[in-house]
Amino acid sequence: MRIGNSQGVRIPKSLLQDAQLSGEVDMTVVDDGLLITPVIEVDTGLSLMLASHDALSDWERPEEEEAWASLQ
What we know:
This protein has about 70 residues and is an alpha+beta fold. The protein has a domain at about 1-40: Pemi-like Protein 1, Chain: D.
């Protein structure tokens, strides 16, 4: 089926379920055709860093507070 200048392909629901594909997919050209794989979001660690930063911001270190106070 034509979609603009592209070629569209319909994939039967049962085939998608068997392949456990849903949502976004990546398509890669391989020797014999196309490889369709699910998009897997990689946690870059940013959410972990932000979570630890929030935890550390609640942690008080008196000697550090005194040092900052003396600079003001």
